[in-house]
Task: inverse folding
């Protein structure tokens, strides 16, 4: 009878812990999500309602005037175009370099394979620093060029090692069968290896895209021309001084001069975050998939 009572007590305590744990996590999640919610709400608020002050949880009147203002600003469109170029071109180039390097290192017949792996491992442990990196970019003549935002971070040693693990898990018999059919190394990589590694490519592609889209510090170091600044530099200038970042000539009409600076800032933040938020749900399903699981299903 005593053991049964102990089991009941333990079961009850487990339930209390689970309920309290779930409640705590829900509250913590709401606290973390509230700043994003507040940014979204303020971006849709009317200038009159925002100037009334106080904590705004739900605007009475919704308006797109702040978004029309930001989208009519040439500096924002130009910065968004630069970030889009970095995200698309940089991600594709990084995936090609990372996947090809990882595939080559996964082949045991490659000469000097262990030395290259050691050098890649060293890059994951030691960082040369800001000044050596700047000097390298300067000597290569890439200062004030968008290539300075792509080439120095074209690949990651950690991503190469992880993707190499994906390629190691692919049976060698598939490659041997392809070679019997007349495929060379490049054909095997394109027709066999990459289709089986779509899940890893999607995951690493999202990581690269987010990194390129959020390019900030390297742009501060290497880019001097304001017309080549990415979106994060634009947002920094907007948060410091909205009139300087947006420019007076970008106004659609004189009525838009009365828009509060904070609503314009919130609208710009939402617009700069939206592209990544739209891409992420389509690639999230690939995170939990293994490369061989996908190949077996297909």
Result:
């Amino acid at each position: 009878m005593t053991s049964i009572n102990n089991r009941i007590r333990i079961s009850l305590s487990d339930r209390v812990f689970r309920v309290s744990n779930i409640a705590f996590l829900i509250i913590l999640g709401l606290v973390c999500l509230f700043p994003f919610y507040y940014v979204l709400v303020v971006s849709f608020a009317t200038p009159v309602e925002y100037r009334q002050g106080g904590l705004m949880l739900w605007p009475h009147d919704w308006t797109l005037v702040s978004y029309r203002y930001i989208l009519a600003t040439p500096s924002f469109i130009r910065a968004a175009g630069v970030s889009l170029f970095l995200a698309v071109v940089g991600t594709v180039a990084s995936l090609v370099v990372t996947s090809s390097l990882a595939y080559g290192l996964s082949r045991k017949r490659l000469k000097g394979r262990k030395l290259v792996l050691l050098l890649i491992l060293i890059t994951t442990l030691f960082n040369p620093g800001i000044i050596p990196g700047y000097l390298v970019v300067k000597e290569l003549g890439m200062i004030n060029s968008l290539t300075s935002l792509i080439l120095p971070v074209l690949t990651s040693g950690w991503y190469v090692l992880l993707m190499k693990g994906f390629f190691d898990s692919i049976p060698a018999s598939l490659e041997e069968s392809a070679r019997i059919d007349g495929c060379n190394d490049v054909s095997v990589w394109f027709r066999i290896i990459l289709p089986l590694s779509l899940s890893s490519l999607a995951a690493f592609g999202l990581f690269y895209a987010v990194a390129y889209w959020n390019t900030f510090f390297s742009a501060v170091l290497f880019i001097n021309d304001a017309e080549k600044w990415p979106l994060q530099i634009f947002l920094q200038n907007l948060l410091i001084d909205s009139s300087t970042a947006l420019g007076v000539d970008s106004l659609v009409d004189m009525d838009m001069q009365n828009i509060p600076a904070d609503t314009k800032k919130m609208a710009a933040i939402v617009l700069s975050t939206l592209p990544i938020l739209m891409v992420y749900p389509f690639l999230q399903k690939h995170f939990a998939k293994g490369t061989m699981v996908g190949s077996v299903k297909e």
Observations:
- The two ends are 56 Å apart (CA to CA).
- DSSP finds 15 helices and no strands in the chain.
- Residues 2-65 form one domain.
